[in-house]
Amino acid sequence: MSINTLNPDNWVDQYADYLFNYAVSRVSDAEIAKDLVQDTFIAGLKSAKNFKGDAAERTWLVAILKRKVIDYYRKMNSNKGKAEVRMSYSSQTDAEGDWLEEKVADPNSLLENDFLENEELGTAIHDCIDKLPKKQALVFKMKTIQGISTDDICNELNINPSNLWVMIHRSRSALMDCLNQNWFSI
Amino acid sequence: MIFCEKAARICDKAQYNEASFFEVLLLKFHLTMCKACTKHSKKNGQLTSLCTNAKLHALSEAEKNNLKEKLKESL
Is A14 part of the contact surface with chain B (CB cutoff 8 Å)? Predict the structure, then answer.
């Protein structure tokens, strides 16, 4: 087995998106998630000498991030005042029906699984994006995830539109194959 | 008659709502007689819906550079 090593210089490029995605799905606030990712990298740098090389770099960083997320919730709940349960009875005062009835979980609802499933799906997609060539991954992320317009991407990366569509096409084809293996076959 | 390559390009554009009405028409027409493209276009649509369902997040380049600088400072 090859021993894993740490390359902190590449951390941001390689893992920032993955970790950010992981954090956002847990704290559901982009700003806080960004801070957590930053804290994770800093903590990683500080304890780099304790890295034994048993786990892959990313696994190790995710483990740190997990602790950071837990710490965040702990801190949030440490003040008694913040720990109290807040319930919004009804934002629409003229809403009809019994509010208690509306709060009861619907036993037939499948929506609860959606969150878990989507989270796994996000991880699967990010895994597949990581396998793409760097430039294709960048273009795909800009276009699909950040939703930047074609013109803006072309200006920023100095490519022409047909170039961009070729890269999008290649990355989409590769992602379809990858997800076919990793997502639909499970 | 458009060829499959062009159909694939329009199909990709359509995933980002950037295909013109005329292009979509051409694509639909091509799909009626090309099995391979129909399959591809279906899969392409699936990928788009997967990506929207997953609610993916990513950091922009500026944010990443910001992050890099902060890491350097902390060293």
Answer: no
pLDDT digits (tens, 9 = 90+) for A145-174: 887 888 888 888 888 888 889 999 999 999
Which of chain A's residues have a Cβ under 8 Å away from the Cβ of B46? 176
pTM greater than 0.80 (yes/no): no
Whether the CB of A48 is below 8 Å from some CB of chain B: the reply is no
- Gap between the Cα atoms of A27 and A36, Å rounded: 10
CATH 1.10.1740 matches A8-80 = yes
The rounded distance, in Å, linking the Cα atoms of B11 and B34 is 13
Q: Which residues contact A56 (CB under 8 A, 6 or more apart)?
A: A4
Topology of the domain covering A113-184 = Arc Repressor Mutant, subunit A (1.10.10)
pLDDT tens, B24-45? 999 999 999 999 999 999 989 9
Delimit the domains of chain A by residue range. Answer: 8-80, 113-184
- For residues A181 and A166, give the distance between their C-alpha atoms in angstroms, rounded to a whole number: 23
DSSP string, B13-26: HHHTT---HHHHHH
A83 exposure class (CB count in 10 Å sphere: 0-12, 13-18, 19+):
exposed
Least CB-CB distance to A121: which of B12, B50, B63? B50
Task: Please give the Cα distance from B2 to B28 (Å, whole number).
Answer: 11
**Look-up: residue for tokens 């709940």?**
A77
